[in-house]
Amino acid sequence: MLESLKVRNYVLIDYLDISFSDGFTVLTGETGSGKSIMLGALSLLLGAKTDKDAVRQGEESAEISGIFTVSSESVARWTEEHGVEIEDDALLIRRLIKTNGRSAYTVNGTPVTVKEGEELGHLLVDVSSQHSHQSLMKHSVLRTMLDEAASLQSESASYKDLYAGVKNEERELAEAQERIRRMSEEADYMRYSLKELEEAELREGEEDELKAEVEVMNSSEFLKETLSAALSELRAASSSLSEAMDLLRKASRKDQRITELADRTENISIENDDILLSVRDHLTTIDFPEAELEEKNARLMQLQRIRRRFGGSISEAIRRRDDFRERLEEAENGEALLAGLEKKLSDDKAKLIAAGEALLTKRKKAALMLEKRIEDNLRKLGMSSAVFTIKVERLPEPQPDGIDKISFLIAPNKGEKLSPVEDTASGGELSRIMLALKVSLFSGTGVGTMLFDEIDAGIGGTVANAVAEEMKELSQSEQVIAITHLPQIASRADSHYLVEKEEKDGRTMTRIRAVAGEERVKEIARLLSGETSDLSLRHARALLEVQDS
Question: What pTM was computed for the model?
Answer without folding.
Answer: 0.61
